[in-house]
Each structure stands twice: as C-alpha cells, then as structure tokens.
C-alpha cells in the first residue's frame, strides 16, 4: 500500500505504519464504513424503482467524497502559509470547491455529519488566517483562484448560523471582515475580492476583461456575477455582525447587501455588468450579456436570496415575477413534457453555460431558483420544476448533471429527494417541497441535535401525487403540528420528529399566504447619490476642419431626483458647441442614464494629433463625476481606397464574411472593447494610436494584403514606429509576410510582419490584443460562442532621421488589415497671450499689441486679426521671434477688437492656436470739463479730484496732445503725499539743510523740499534707526492710519477727546493712531466702510489710493483747515 503526507516523508511513513494493511482488509473496512455512512439516510427499497434507489445512494455517496482530511496521524498538517501546524482540537480538511459547495453540500453535511462539518468550517477559518484571505477553491494547501465572488463568506456564515463555530465566532468574524473589506496586495497568491476598490465606493464590481490578476479566475472578468455574489455575502455577513454586536459593521454590510440594485438596467429589465466608467456593457439581450461567470444574466437574476421580496418588487411585483419565472422554466411546456424540457431546453450541453434564457440545472448559479416560487405563493411549481430537474440524474455513466463539483450537484439531488433544501445560504433556513420517496429516515447525531432520528413521510407520493396539501411535525406529546410556512429553521427541522407531507394530484392552498416565505435579510435604506459620466465614443477620429458629434452620457443611481450641470471643455484645436448644460435624472434607486449630443469641431490646419476634452458633472453641491475623452485628427481615405473585404457585421444580420465561410466579427462587441468604426483607439500597453475608418454597415472595412501600396499622409509622417491592426483567417497560428516601408528620401526598409489568427486563444509573434470578443457572428439569430478579435502586430521601427512616405502590404491574402497604428506624438499646443501698451491710448495715437507664444521656440507666424460683426480680417503678420511678435495699431475713439493667431510652420510639430480672448483697443477722448482722461465725469471722487486740479494741487501725468491722466486707483507713495500736503499748505518757504533729516532721502530727491518741510513742521518723524538716524521710506505706499496722523498734525494737533468706544470694528482705543483717526471722523473727513450689518471698518493699515487721498484733502479743506 502507498501512504501520502502533505507534510513530509516522515509523516507519510507514520501514516503507513499506523494505517497500512492488506488490500482485502482495507476494502472490507471501507465497505463497512460506507455502508454505515450511507445507511444514515434510509429510503424504502421495496415498491420503488431500483434505478431510483441507485441514483439516490450514488448521489449520497458522491456528496461525501470531499473535502478530504489533510492531517497526518500525528495531527500535523501543512498550512496555507507554507508552515507546519498541529490540529490539536479538530481534524484538518482540505480540497474545498467553495463556489459550489456553499449552496448545498455544506448544509447536507451539517445535517448528516455535524462533527466533521464543524472541523471543515474550522479548517476554512485556519486557511483564511494563514493565507490572509478566504480561499475559493483550495487544492491541498494551495489557492487556485478558481471561480469568483466571495463563496467563503457564505460557507462560513452558514456554518456559524448552524452553531458549528461555537467558541470560534470572533476569530471567524475577523477573517470574514478582513476579507470583505480589503483586497490582496500584489505579493499575495490570492486574487480575493479584486473588485473591492470600486465595489466599496460605487456598489458594483467593474467588468474589465482586459485586466488580469494572479493565475486563475479573476472577478473583474465577471463583474456582473461578482457584484451579485459580493452583495449576497455582505448581506449574510451583516447577520453575523449584528448577532455578535458589531452594529456599525452590520449596518455597513447590510447596506452593501442591496448592491444588486447597482446592476439593474431598467431599459432591459435585467442585470447587466458595468465597466470602469460606470456604464452598462455588452449586449442588451440578457441571454447574451457579458460578465456573468458560467451563466447568463437571466440565470443569475435569482441570486438575490438576501432580498427576494425586494427583487420581486424590482421585477414589477408578484404577478410579473411569476410570469418571469414561468418563462425561465418554460413552465407551460414542462407540465406536458418535464423530461423533454429538462433535456432539450434547459440543458444544451454539459458545459454550455452561455447564450441561454432558461434554467440551467447543469451548473450552480441558479440551483435554488425553483424555490423562488415559494416567495410568490406558488410552492406547487417548485415541486413541478424540482421533479423535472431530478430526471437529469440517472444510474449511468452520464448520470450527473454537469460537473459534480466535489459533491455539490449530488447534494442538490439528495436534498431535493428528501424534501428539505437550504434556500437562503447563511441563515439555516430550509425550504420544504415534495419528497421523492414515501419515507426517508435520517439518522442524526444526538450530541449535536438532541435527538437521533428525523423521519420524513410522504404517503402516496408519486409523479401524479406530487403536490403538497399539508405539512406537519410531531410535538413532544405526539400530536401533529401544522407547518403553515414553506420553510423551517434548522432547529425546527432536526427536532421535527416526524415531518409529514400530505400530497395530492392538484395544487393546494398550503404555504400560499404572504407570510409563508422567509423575509429579507436586508432592507433598502438610504442610498445616497452615485454618478458617473463618459463621452461616447471616448476616442473620436476627425479630419482637420471637420466635426463629429459625440454623446455626453451620465448615469446616476439615487433615492430621489438628482441633477445639476455638465461642463464640457475642449481646447483651441477642438471646440465644443455647448460648453454647459443642465441634467436631471430620476433613477428610482437603480442606475438610469441620460445623454445629450455635443458637436466637436476641429479647426482647419490641424494635421495630426490627439487632443483632450474633459467633462465635469456637478449636482449643485460640487463636482460629482469627471471624465475625459479625446479627438484624434487623422485621415482615412488612404486606407479606405484599399478596402476589399467586409469582416465586421451585426448579430444575426449576415452582412459580413471575414473568413470566406460566413463567419465575421461583431460590430457592437468590438466597439464595447474600444475598436469602433469612425473612432480612434490605442494599442494596449503602447503609445500607438489608430483611427478606424467609418464605413457603412455591409461595406468593405479591411484590406486583404495583396501587396497594396498605401501612401502615408502628412498626419503620420513623423511617426517613429507603427503596427498593422487586423487578423488572419485560417492562420496556423498566424499569417503574414514582408512589409516594405518607403521613406521620403527614396530609401526602403523591409521587415516581416505577422498577424495572429482571428480566433486564436494565444496571440503569437509579438501580437497584442486590440479587441477580442467572446462570440462571432454567423448570419443566424444566435452568435457563435467562439472568441475572435483583432490584434496589433509587433511594432516596426522607423529609422532615425527617416520620414515615412508609403507602406507596402505583404503578399498574404488571408491577412486582413483594418487600420494602421502610429506613435505620432500630438503636436505641441501653443498658448498665445497678448497685451496692449498703453492700455488706453489717446484716440489717434499708436498702441502696440505684443503677442507672446508659449513655448517660445515654436516656428511659425503670429497673425494679427481684426474682429468685427463681418468676421475676422487679417491686419498684419510676422514670424515668431524671441517667443513673440509686436504689432502697431492706431487707436480710435471707437473700440476695436483684435485677436492674434499662431500659424505653425510645420503643423505636424505644432498645432494652430489663437488667443483665448480678444483684446480691445479704444482711444481715449478727454472732455473739456474733465481734468484727466482717466477720471471721466460721474466717476468716483470726480468732484474731489477736479478740486485738486483746479487748485493746482495735482497735475497728473502729461500724455501729450494736452491730455493727462491721474491714475486714481494707484496707491500714493509717501513722497508724493508729502508733495500734496506741501501744496495744500500754500508751498511755504523752507530752509533746506545741507544734511537730510532722513537717511533714505538725499538732497537731490525730487521731493526733498516737501519731505524736509514735513519733518520741520513735525508732521512726520519717520522711523528711528538703531544708529540714531531716521528713515522716511519715500516710495512705500502711505497707510490710511498714517494719513490720518499727517492731517491731524498738519492741523496743529487740535484738542480732541477720543471716544471710549471705537467707531470702527477693526480699531480699538489701543490701536496706533486711534486718536487721529477718530478726529478725522469727528471732523467729517473720514467715514470708513459701512457694512450690511450697520458696523463700519477703517482698514487702518491698508494703503490709500490717489482718489481716496483727494477725497481726504477735499474734506480737510471743507472742514476749514486750508486757508
């Protein structure tokens, strides 16, 4: 005999020494063990078909085959951390097909083998602790990452609800919570809940078939089903969290249990996967929907056991859901031919999971679906459907539906046959339906259940008498107790004594009331607002001077109406017709989308490049979603002239033929993957950009390579590398030949190019998948489930210093070229700015418009244009020199708008650009009664400034031609303030000292006399320095409080009692110059600024402008302080 150990050779030897015996002895012992184990469920063997007995016990036998013990006889085992552990108080098990077994086998083993089932649950807990993440499909001590979702949570919460984890609740919960709320880091072998980053924020797992995790299955490849499985597991975990007192966690998980709503598309009335942008993807036919693992959206739509009442409401109520379920099971035909429906309409192949809109009992996702009738008040239909499904099990070599998945399908049969089925995982709730036999005796473990037998009776049951009329259990006194509901708890089931089903040939009223089925584990709460946006297509292709219309799409899920604005931002190259729009969506708690068209126009003269546009969606409180898109400026005529094959068509239309046999690529599927006709795309993982020519459906869309010469347009001549985008038909595994690149200097380069077969599973020769769908068209109503697509060849490098002129395709007529991808860098987007000097010249005078372009080293012309109602007319142009150019214009009394455009010398290197806003040149005309051109009549402080001028206190700046400006809002410097005060004082005689009173005012200072007078009069003392000198700081602006001090001292510091309460909120009696400022107020010289609340501020340290200074002096004179 051979002995195995997962620990070491010594363990295998110890196992051999302890257990090895002769073959016959081992066989006899195994027979006895199996007889004992299978005998725990006894069904009648008389008056029944022997085949039915063989089928039942074969299924029961298979239900016990896994998981398997992993401990050696010394109780050591190899853990999931690679270390050796000892299972002191339990037997360690391994080999768990959790995605499958959590639905049926776990519950059956709990009923028949609770001690072993407890050890299995503890084993999964230990695996989660050692790996750091819950397993999905463990093979020995290794995570295979087979299947998706979060099955470990459902498995363990079921075990917890059954009491199998007593004493281990918190350690189990810690593993479950960590797994539910996090994602494995890249060093882990586990994929875990890879969809969590988006799911936790937005409520769904994104469907991204182009992204990959660790080997095995990956949730992002099955975003639709993963979302439903996460939501189910989260809801189950909420029940455990609540019971253990983790109330905040419970509320959070319960809210996530409603995330099935995030997948419901009201336009198709079905669940659909969503991509990273937040929008639904794939076919709108639920049977053809993408993103559902080993099933269709139709089959997965019942995987909402945590809230079936909510699902029924979502589907339109009880009656609508009854019809939906009837259609799913082909119920009307099933009544006439149950076995025929099961074998011909439900099951189309052992592993045929996709393209169906009916029940598939060959696989796990919808195994529980027959019991949904119990929530609809029609438990008799459960009996009909289960009976039909059981006909798929036989005693022959193909007698199990699909893959048994370590006992899952067999356990389904056993549970269905005894009439008790776990209808809501994680809850220990057992749905009741008609047993297959008149009697079933289940031996129970009295240490676990307090009793050693469960008797199930269905006297007279047959194919005709299959409808339950009444169910009873046996009370302690032996009396029959009616069961009005369609389910029992685990405790009620195991303590039922005798569970009796009264059956008959017609449906009855049993368990048809509104309270007959279990309620929801979670209830719909406050959702909040989830908004996403995109531009479709995300990459547009437009020729220079042309335009295209894209759709700005918004999808929102909220409790109430949500809306706001959408801002679309283009560039100087790509303009949008409407920059801002209003949006409003009433989603009713499920994702609802809206869209509106936006025209994108590319300015003339743009040769090539990819240019961004952005959108920002706001809801009134702020931006709630952002998205970006791009426009690729490209030419397509150089390709379309060579097109001679139609390889892309529409599902069921038969309007294409890629391979000569009538098969073709599907247009919508390619577009969903980023290859859309009339749009642009990027070769994944590269900088290579391609434009797909827009063609009419049914028209040629690719060129069969027959040596055609494709002249390369200017748009691509700067490319440094390129790839052919296409595929080969009947490639083995690829096809191709030599491509010739011809350059503008007449030289050539020949290089081999290969494109993979369009339906290959492994692209070869350095090819990169551009877009590969899971199906192909064949001209019939149903697409063929064969994955076919397009690839980019390994890049061809253009030699340094060469410029492309043409591309000669190979002589390979089975190679289809749809487009060519280039790495042309987008031309520089220059920014043009402009200024005018002087800002307001006199009418008739010359003003200079100076244009600057960034970056300053671009080559081209700057063009000055005059803008009027008649359009734009060129005025002058000049080459960019030193980063800009200047233009002289004559100002007129009438305002004239100008703009400056940049025209590149080489449009492949730099794009055209224009100033963002026009600049206006307007000549100033001075009125006779206006002393200054910049202080027109009616302006602020016009009277006060005119008083300064009329009294000779201010002359302003001479502009020539008899005009002057005052510059009213310019802060006044301290030296100029001295000059004003000196003039107001009547320009008294001053004896100028040889040495200045201030160290920073030299005798040759233009205002030396005036500043010296201030010092001699005691009006200003300046700032004392540490060396005994003083500074005046002549060029600093004078502050408003210092201005008050100057005027107060100039008035000979009259007696003044400062008020104890400040008239200004920004000054107190302790503030510097408080007395001087309040003196101004008392004399009516200053009022400050009065706020809406009636209070005033003075802003004491703010600089005073020249217009306010004029007002101070004017009021100073009006108060009688000027002679």
Describe this structure as you would to a colleague:
Pfam families: Glyco_hydro_92. This is SLH domain-containing protein. One of its GO terms (molecular function) is peptide-N4-(N-acetyl-beta-glucosaminyl)asparagine amidase activity. InterPro entries: 6-hairpin_glycosidase_sf, GH92_a_mannosidase_put, Glyco_hydro_92, PNGase, SLH_dom. This protein is α+β, with helices and mostly antiparallel strands. About 25% of the residues lie in helices and about 25% in strands. Helix 3 (about 50-65) packs across helix 18 (about 410-420). The mean pLDDT is about 95. The protein is elongated. The chain folds into six domains: about 1-35, no CATH class; about 40-70 and about 190-445, alpha-1,2-mannosidases domains (Glycosyl hydrolase family fold, Up-down Bundle), CATH 1.20.1610; about 530-635, Immunoglobulins (Immunoglobulin-like, Sandwich), CATH 2.60.40; about 635-820, no CATH class; about 830-920, Macroglobulin (MG2) domain (Immunoglobulin-like, Sandwich), CATH 2.60.40.1930; about 940-1120, no CATH class.
């Amino acid at each position: 005999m051979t002995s195995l150990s997962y620990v070491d050779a010594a363990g295998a030897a110890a196992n051999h020494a302890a257990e090895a015996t002769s073959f016959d002895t081992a066989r006899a012992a195994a027979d006895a063990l199996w007889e004992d184990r299978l005998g725990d469920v006894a069904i009648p063997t008389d008056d029944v078909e022997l085949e039915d007995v063989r089928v039942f016990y074969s299924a029961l036998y298979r239900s016990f085959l896994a998981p398997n013990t992993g401990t050696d006889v010394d109780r050591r085992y190899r853990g999931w951390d690679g270390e050796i552990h000892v299972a002191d108080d339990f037997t360690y098990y391994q080999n768990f097909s959790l995605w499958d077994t959590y639905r049926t086998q776990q519950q059956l083993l709990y009923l028949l083998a609770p001690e072993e089932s407890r050890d299995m649950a503890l084993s999964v807990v230990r695996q989660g602790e050692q790996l750091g993440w819950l397993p999905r499909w463990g093979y020995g001590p290794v995570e295979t990452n087979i299947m998706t979702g979060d099955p470990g949570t459902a498995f363990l919460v079921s075990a917890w609800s059954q009491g199998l984890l007593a004493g281990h609740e918190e350690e189990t919960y810690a593993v479950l919570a960590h797994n539910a709320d996090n994602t494995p880091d890249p060093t882990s072998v586990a994929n875990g809940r890879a969809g969590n980053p988006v799911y936790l924020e937005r409520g769904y797992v994104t469907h991204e078939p182009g992204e990959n995790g660790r080997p095995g299955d990956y949730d992002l490849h099955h975003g639709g089903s993963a979302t439903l499985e996460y939501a189910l597991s989260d809801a189950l975990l909420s029940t455990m969290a609540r019971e253990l007192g983790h109330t905040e966690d419970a509320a959070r998980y319960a809210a996530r249990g409603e995330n099935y709503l995030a997948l419901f598309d009201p336009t198709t009335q079905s669940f659909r996967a969503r991509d990273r942008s937040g929008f639904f993807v794939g076919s709108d036919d639920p049977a053809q929907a993408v993103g559902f693992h080993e099933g269709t959206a139709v089959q997965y739509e019942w995987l909402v056991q945590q809230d079936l009442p909510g699902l029924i409401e979502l589907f339109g109520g009880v009656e609508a859901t009854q019809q939906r379920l009837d259609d799913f099971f082909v119920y009307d035909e099933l009544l006439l031919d149950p076995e025929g429906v099961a074998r011909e309409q439900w099951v189309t192949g052992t592993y045929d999971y996709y393209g169906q809109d009916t029940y598939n009992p060959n696989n796990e996702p919808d195994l529980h679906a027959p019991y949904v009738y119990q929530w609809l008040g029609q438990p008799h239909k459960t009996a009909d459907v289960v009976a039909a499904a059981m006909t798929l099990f036989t005693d022959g070599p193909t007698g199990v539906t699909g893959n048994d998945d370590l006992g899952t399908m067999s356990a389904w049969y056993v549970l269905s046959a005894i009439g008790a089925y776990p209808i809501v995982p994680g809850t220990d709730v057992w749905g009741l339906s008609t047993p297959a036999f008149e009697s079933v005796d289940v031996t129970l473990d009295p240490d676990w259940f307090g009793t050693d037998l469960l008797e199930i009776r269905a006297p007279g049951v047959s194919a005709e008498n299959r409808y339950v009329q009444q169910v009873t259990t046996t009370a302690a006194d032996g009396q029959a107790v009616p069961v009005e509901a369609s389910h029992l708890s685990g405790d009620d089931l195991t303590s039922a004594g005798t569970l009796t089903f009264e059956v008959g040939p017609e449906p009855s009223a049993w368990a048809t009331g509104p309270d007959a089925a279990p309620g929801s584990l979670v209830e719909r709460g406050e959702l909040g607002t989830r908004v996403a946006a995109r531009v479709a297509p995300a990459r547009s292709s437009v020729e220079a001077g042309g335009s295209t219309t894209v759709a700005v799409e918004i999808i929102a899920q909220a409790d109430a109406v949500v809306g706001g604005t959408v801002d679309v931002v283009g560039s100087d190259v790509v303009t949008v017709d409407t920059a801002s729009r209003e949006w409003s969506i009433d989603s009713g708690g499920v994702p609802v989308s809206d869209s509106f068209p936006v025209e994108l126009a590319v300015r003339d003269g743009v040769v090539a490049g990819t240019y961004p546009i952005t959108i920002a969606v706001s809801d009134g409180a702020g931006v709630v979603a952002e998205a970006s898109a791009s426009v690729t400026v490209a030419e397509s005529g150089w390709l379309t002239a060579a097109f001679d094959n139609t390889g892309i068509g529409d599902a069921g239309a038969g309007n294409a033929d890629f391979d000569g046999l009538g098969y073709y690529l599907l247009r919508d599927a390619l577009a969903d993957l980023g290859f859309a006709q009339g749009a642009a795309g990027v070769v994944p993982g590269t900088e290579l950009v391609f434009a797909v020519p827009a063609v009419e459906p049914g028209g040629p869309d690719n060129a069969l390579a027959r040596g055609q010469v494709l002249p390369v347009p200017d748009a691509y001549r700067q490319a440094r590398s390129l790839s052919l985008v296409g595929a080969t038909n009947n490639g083995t595994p690829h096809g191709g030949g030599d491509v010739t690149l011809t350059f503008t200097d007449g030289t050539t380069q020949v290089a081999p190019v290969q494109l993979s077969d369009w339906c290959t599973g492994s692209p070869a020769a350095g090819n990169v998948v551009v877009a590969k769908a899971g199906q192909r068209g064949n001209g019939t109503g149903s697409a063929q489930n064969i994955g076919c697509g397009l690839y980019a060849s390994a890049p061809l490098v253009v030699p340094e210093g060469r410029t492309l002129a043409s591309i000669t395709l190979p002589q390979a007529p089975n190679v289809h070229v749809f487009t060519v991808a280039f790495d042309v860098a987008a031309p520089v987007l220059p920014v043009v700015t402009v200024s005018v000097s002087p800002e307001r010249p006199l009418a008739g005078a010359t003003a200079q418009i100076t244009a600057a372009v960034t970056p300053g080293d671009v080559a081209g012309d700057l063009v000055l244009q005059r803008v009027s109602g008649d359009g734009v007319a060129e005025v002058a142009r000049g080459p960019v020199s030193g980063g800009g150019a200047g233009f002289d214009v004559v100002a007129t009394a009438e305002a004239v708008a100008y703009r400056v455009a940049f025209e590149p010398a080489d449009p492949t290197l730099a794009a055209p650009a224009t100033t963002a806003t026009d600049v206006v040149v307007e000549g100033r005309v001075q009125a006779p009664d206006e002393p200054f051109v910049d202080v027109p009549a009616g302006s602020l402080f016009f009277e006060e400034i005119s008083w300064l001028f009329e009294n000779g206190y201010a002359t302003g700046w001479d502009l020539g031609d008899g005009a002057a400006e005052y510059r009213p809002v310019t802060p006044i410097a301290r030296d100029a303030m001295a000059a004003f005060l000196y003039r107001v004082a009547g320009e008294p005689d001053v004896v100028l000292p040889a040495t200045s009173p201030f160290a920073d005012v030299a005798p040759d200072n233009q205002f030396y006399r005036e500043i010296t007078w201030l010092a001699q009069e005691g009006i200003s003392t300046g700032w004392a320095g540490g060396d005994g000198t003083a500074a005046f700081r002549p060029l600093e602006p004078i502050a408003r409080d210092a201005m008050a001090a100057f005027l107060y001292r100039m008035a000979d510091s009259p007696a003044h009692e400062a008020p104890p309460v400040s008239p200004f909120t920004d000054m107190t009696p302790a503030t510097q110059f408080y007395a001087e400022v309040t003196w101004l107020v008392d004399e009516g010289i200053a009022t400050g600024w009065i706020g809406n609340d009636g209070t005033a501020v003075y802003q004491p340290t703010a600089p005073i402008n020249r217009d306010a200074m004029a007002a101070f002096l004017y009021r100073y004179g009006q108060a009688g302080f000027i002679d």
